[in-house]
Design a protein that fits this description.
Largest sheet: 2 strands, antiparallel
CATH topology of the largest domain: Tetracycline Repressor, domain 2
Number of helices: 15
CATH architecture of the largest domain: Orthogonal Bundle
Radius of gyration: 20 Å
Length: 304
């Protein structure tokens, strides 16, 4: 239990607040891609160690999310979609959140090292470092390319999962990393189009705020087109079978269609949407489904 006075009153945290600090929605995607990396690896480890490796990836993702919320508490307080988070709402103190994140970070890395190998533990530690220091503390507040460069932080899990099983890194997990890396900009920029007012109030230099919505729409389309051959590369290089190849082609074409709708959304003279960014909202939702199905198809090919 933790008392907080950030909101000017006394409130008590609940288990749900501590869970919310872990950014569970983000964690679910991270855990899934990490598990796929573990599943498609040529070396299989026993189920208990596999579960432990996935748990470590989840803990590390949650730890990075908690530290991110600690550092971004000032930003979250002025953004409508984040003002109810535990720290700005005054249910958990920033200091407690930081300690929570640090403890989980150390625990996840040590447990990964003991359960699997030092390569996986080292990659896990670096992914936490990258998200906290490179993305959160540096890129997010300094450049509109924050999502592009910072996207690497969310692309590590399949590599970590593979390394946990094999003790090394190979071409397939690197390609899976690249897919997530190029998927992140159109995914997150779609969100930033309909949340640009929040980012502007918070002073975060997201692309729609700095370059405008029209420039953002063009970039979303460009990255969606670039993603298509990258998503197909595991099949074209013979690392995945026809099930994955067919899914990658169809999903990527559909994603391009969603992004094309974002590009051609009805706009005023300044490039602002006249449809409440409905195409961007749809593209954002589909992008999540895209990654889940694509990585799932990769696992299906492994079983076949």
């Amino acid at each position: 239990m933790s008392d907080s006075t950030l909101s000017g009153g006394l409130s008590v945290s609940t288990a749900a607040d501590w869970f919310a600090l872990l950014k569970p929605r983000v964690m679910s995607l991270v855990v899934f891609t990490g598990a796929i990396g573990l599943i498609v690896a040529p070396t299989q480890i026993n189920p208990l160690l596999s579960f432990t490796a996935i748990l470590c990836i989840a803990l590390a993702a949650g730890a990075a999310g908690a530290i991110n919320m600690w550092y971004d508490a000032d930003i979250d307080a002025v953004m409508r979609r984040t003002a109810s988070r535990p720290i700005p709402a005054g249910r958990i103190t920033a200091r407690d959140a930081l300690g929570y994140g640090i403890v989980l970070s150390v625990l996840s890395v040590l447990l990964m090292a003991m359960a699997t190998n030092l390569v996986a533990a080292g990659l896990l530690a670096f992914s936490i470092f990258y998200y906290v220091f490179i993305y959160t503390m540096w890129l997010k507040r300094s450049t509109p390319q924050n999502i592009v460069i910072g996207g690497a932080a969310g692309a590590f899990p399949p590599v970590i999962g593979w390394a946990a099983a094999t003790g090394h890194v190979s071409l397939l997990p690197v390609l899976l990393f690249t897919i997530v890396f190029f998927w992140t900009p159109p995914h997150f920029w779609s969100l930033s189009l309909f949340a640009s007012g929040d980012y502007e109030r918070a002073g975060v230099p997201m692309l729609p705020v700095v370059k405008g919505p029209r420039h953002t729409r063009i970039n979303i389309m460009v990255y969606a087109v670039l993603l298509l051959p990258i998503a197909l590369s595991p099949y074209l290089l013979g690392l995945c079978g026809v099930v994955y190849g067919a899914c990658a082609l169809v999903l990527s074409l559909v994603f391009c269609f969603y992004c094309w709708r974002v590009l051609n959304d009805q706009q005023d003279a300044q490039g602002h949407s006249l449809t409440s960014n409905a195409p961007a909202r749809a593209a954002f939702k589909f992008s999540i489904l895209y990654l889940f199905i694509l990585f799932g198809a990769c696992a299906v090919d492994r079983f076949i």
